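Support reply, case 0932

Customer input (verbatim):
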Amino acid sequence: MLRLILAGVLTASLIPGVCDAAEWVPLWPEGAPGAKGTEDRDVPALMAFPAPAETANGAAVVVCPGGGYGGLAMDHEGHQIAAWLNERGVSAWILRYRLGSAGYHHPIQKGDVLRAIRTVRSQADQNNVDLQRIGVWGFSAGGHLASTAATHFDLGDADATDPVDRISSRPDFAVLCYPVITMDEKFTHMGSRRNLFGPDRVDNPELIELLSNENRVTKDTPPSFIFHTTEDQAVPVENAVRFYSALRTNGVNCELHIYQKGRHGVGLAPNDPILSTWPARLQDWLSTNGFLTKK
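Our regenerated output:
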């Protein structure tokens, strides 16, 4: 996890400079709830990467980079993922969510990811996106955030003043890569828990139970694909196993791939001849379940 953060994490104020081809669009144009200021780190935002018109199939994904809720690995867990999706006809929106390192703790992150899904859904017509094929994809702590979207969503508030808030935040599918799932001290990533909970609540039993997302799975949790490695020393593979088991118990369509070798934070693993096969398994799963089928 440390290597991930040092190599891939940019401070929020530097993130917008990563990509010159697109720009960050705030999730709340008038200011985000709970914002402590107006700097980039205070402004949750989406960066859009629409699929090429000639190959677009109508699917869309909100991408949540990892970084222990203390930073964002925007390259190999953000921009590279958007490019991979675009190559398969899927539009991508990278999410810049607020971080514990900037003083933001639960439920801020949950609010950011659910707003992101609502926002993409609210703009589906203008972006040629299928309302029933909007997924979420997260890595490491971003995997926890994606699993939070998959288990803590709501169907919208019909009486909300903001029309975006009237829209469902349920993702239609979830992709979780070496995800933090549990807050149980035995298997969690403590840095993620500390940043998510805040220093004064790090051992709060109610939060541990609430945000151990294997405990939140129901029959309404969306179909999920999970990738992890047994060798992961930062986030134990038991996180993936627990979530998969909960999905199976509740009859949710799911697929789990565990590789023996591979450090934490490999992203698409393009330089590893074995690990680099995992994205093909994801593509197979997306195809099998109709998420890549143009309608």
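We compared this against your earlier run and they match. Two observations from our side: DSSP finds eight helices and ten strands in the chain. Confidence is low (pLDDT under 50) at residues 1-20. Please reopen the case if you see a mismatch on your end.
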